[in-house]
Specification:
homotetramer; alpha/beta; Deoxyhypusine Synthase; six-stranded parallel β-sheet; two-stranded antiparallel sheet; 10 strands
């Protein structure tokens, strides 16, 4: 049994020393370490790793980190919501997202065309540029064929980008599928609709992606999930692995509470009643803000994985 | 300015006396009253009312209440997630959902085929019965035509049900559209996929529903939203009204916090920076468990609306 | 096993019908019913009932309800924090507390002398009146004797009030002890300090109250706790019963989460590891805003208790 | 205006690089950076710094960090609750606190004499050893004089310890007062009570500490507060500075929500309505688990302060 150890700061501390000290503080610090160790284990033992996240995390600076994780072959399957797709493309095309405040004068922001997402801002002009660029991108893929599943469509969009920090770019480069079941739930949905008015034979086939989700992992291989936040991205990742026998490793990281019976707040314990997570799986529920907790847990894991030679760092 | 008033119990209290006393307690009690008054106002002033909710609320006993609200012409447009569709159909076909405990032995539940959703249970056999019944239902509508938007498909399913407490039944009866942008994110997604393997020309058109969402309300008419919980259902309802000029009345009721910048925790204040909610709109953010807070706020409103003769009660 | 039942509104609903319907909705609704039933049980089986609450609840309209519960002999021992003592006295002397908004211009409030507590206001003039009245009240009790335990001191203050809605008034009338371990943590602390400068032999004996806390319940009698909110009031109530063998019935009602290991978020499960709550006790953790949840749970219990003739209602 | 920057991991990352990258991610990451910068500012500008924390943080490994902060002259005044005092002494005497799980079999823990605090354990034998050692410690100080304010009493206890990681030891060494208004709210309260039965003239003077709290800072000097968690420790620190004109710098770090009007969840905004925090103060509300967030914010600040030569590091 491990005991609590007094945390002490020392000058010029290395991050991995910090994260390993965290593990002995207790409360959520310890859960972050448990998550970190589980990530190391799922990667080392060759699991197929699903990474799900919500759109607001792409609004944030985690976006480049997700792209890096695809490049490092940590994330093998991505599941997200459409806002994240839109913002990844905006950023790939050079749009900046200002940092503001949670306590703003929202009417003043409205007049400046500044749309608030917590303490971040998406400018109206970023949406306008997105609108301008998406139509020609869709035309290119329409020229190839008329019917796309969502993951095929996102693959084609990623091929048209050129930004190492882009999730779509890295996913297309590494053939990592991106699933986005509610593809119409955002500005992109509107643009798809407008596009389809001009091209009546253009079909976005959501049902077809179900087949690809099922074949993204198999019953026999080990499966791991890192679910950041809740909602449809978390649920869809779980669904995709449940049908193939359930998860061998799972990290649920969220601020949502179990008390309302929501998917967002559902714990790894609850998941075992469904067989979503196997009985003997390594499973950790971490409760806290992903913008802080995920970099900590993941950087701790990356240091360890690079030390073991499991991941390869490019110059 | 209203002052705090000491709450006192009296024997045989009527619900409307209770709810009006709540308003003068303070904290979330007062916000429940603000929500209640806003519902009365949006209905009285003839707004088109969007009601969004997450699947777990259909797992709960709120399901029959949602059906009642459609029947009472309070809810004019429904937005939800696919789990709720599945469970509404299961219940319409007579399946029971046991009440359990948040703190169960989840491995024991698994062995009994009891899937836990907070403190509620969905039995494996309910999923099996759903599987058995859904295929013939889809065959019936395939016989009519081959391409359906999601809301058309749900309309057809509702026509095949016969349960006054069913959301789909009441929605079809009253021509209330049900939008469900992530239609494949559940067991129903798997069944649609299996069905489409047998019927290659069967198309579920998600993009097509965008048109119907836009025309569900107009720029000129007043628009109100009651968003219960967060995620894609909340976001989609907002999206549908944003394009038509934003909301005149809004109630966001959720347990999610604003602190992580998520859609689930986004406040009515934040919404004003986007124009999702108009500057001068009646907008209330209520933080608490919907299973308790919504019946309170809504029953308070229904009493008032029936007193004013705005809603008609059937015998 | 109970099943979920569809909730339906009906005109002129009685509160007890409403609360019993809540129990079959699920999630926190069901926990409110569990709490209600546990209150009925602890009272019916003759337990000594501890009621603990935080100061903000006395700022709210729950204050008169707490006074009523003392009068109805539901609450036998009170534990709270000093802000609640101050505000109970202010209200007993006629001060009003306005209802404001969670999202105020706090600098403007400051300039108006309006101190915000969530969406409630305490006016500077209420503090000034408290300052004016407390000194003569202390003089009266100093004339009797020079050394008081905190509960004795509060008893004497209650005797000087004349307001049926006052917690102190009802407690003194019914000989219900009020424990307040951090008596100096508020404006009252400052006034006690000023008073003691003038009266060097005036002693507030906190240690002496420990004896009274221990004898407020005995090892052999059944003990119940209704802990509203967290912090020192919750902890002190538990401490007082732990030493006498632990609780037979417990309701923890709070918005605090278990995830940080705090007393405020500590669950009734955790309490069993300490023996704070007995193995086989009726124990319920309810997560939600007390301003809403407590009136619901308690009014449900009061209806039932009055029906069974366990409590007597005065005209 | 700062923009969001893509976070990227690099091998052998230094902690200060990590923390400065966090600042550009958004959401609570950014607030951690704001907190860190505010700590640097309050220290650099010579403010008197109040540090308040709850007992569970002393259960955790933050205890040694708090001791270090006293030693580094970052924390000038300490306010806490009595459980933290008890556990600091236990640890100073060599007791270990095992790390367990949030989801334990609490009845089994009870039988083993393991008391759970979140995912940490305090053993019965640690309480027994505390009981054995505290009486002789009290005898020593009783031999000196008969009447102690709480902070004097804690000063004397600290002198009897010999552990660099002890909060009491460092506080006594550096003449940093520790305020603990609810001194009887724990096992120590029971021991004080037992001691006072043997020594009728022994007086713990809580009112007397009010004078020392007031003189711990002055109206003219700059005052800063780092409030970790909520409850009486947070409130007492605020009270102590409010009377001296309010805070110039404030960090509130907690998991509690503003929605219930509790002191624990009270924001730095709300504090401005009271004058608890000055209009133009640097004030940050950070929402998250202190066991993770505080080491991050504080280590970032310590690196910067040591680089600027403001703090001196001992070998």
């Amino acid at each position: 049994m491990t005991n609590v150890a007094d945390f002490k700061w020392s000058k010029d501390m290395k991050l991995n020393k910090f994260t390993s000290s965290l593990g002995k503080i207790g409360f959520q610090s310890t859960e972050i370490m448990n998550a970190s160790n589980t990530i190391v284990k799922m990667k080392t033992e060759g699991a197929k790793i699903f990474l799900s996240f919500t759109s607001n995390m792409v609004t944030s600076g985690l976006r480049g980190f997700f792209a890096q994780l695809i490049d490092l072959k940590i994330a093998n399957i991505i599941i997200t919501t459409v806002g994240g797709i839109e913002e990844d493309i905006m950023k790939a095309k050079g749009e900046d997202f200002p940092i503001g405040s949670f306590f703003s004068d929202d009417k003043a922001l409205y007049e400046r065309g500044h749309n608030r997402v917590g303490n971040l801002i998406i400018k109206n002009e970023s949406y306008e540029k997105f609108e301008d660029m998406i139509d020609p991108m869709l035309e290119k893929l329409y020229a190839k064929k008329k019917r796309y599943t969502v993951s095929e469509l996102l693959y084609e969009l990623g091929l048209q980008l050129n930004d190492k920090n882009s999730i779509l770019y890295q996913a297309s480069k590494h053939n990592v599928p991106i699933f986005c079941p509610a593809i119409t739930d955002g500005a992109f949905g509107f643009h798809l609709y407008s596009f389809s008015l001009k091209h009546k034979d253009f079909i976005v086939d959501v049902v077809g992606d179900f087949s690809r989700l099922l074949s993204a992992s198999s019953y026999d291989e080990k499966k791991g999930l890192i679910a950041l936040g809740g909602g449809v991205s978390k649920h869809h990742a779980i669904l995709g692995t449940l049908i193939n026998g359930g998860l061998d490793y799972a990290i649920y990281m969220t601020t949502a509470n179990y008390t309302s019976g929501s998917m967002s707040g559902a714990t790894t314990q609850e998941a075992k009643s469904w067989g979503k997570i196997k009985d003997d799986a390594d499973a950790v529920t971490v409760i806290g803000d992903v913008s802080v907790f995920f970099p900590l847990a993941m950087c701790g894991a990356l240091e360890e994985l690079s030390e073991r030679g499991v991941i390869e760092i490019k110059k």
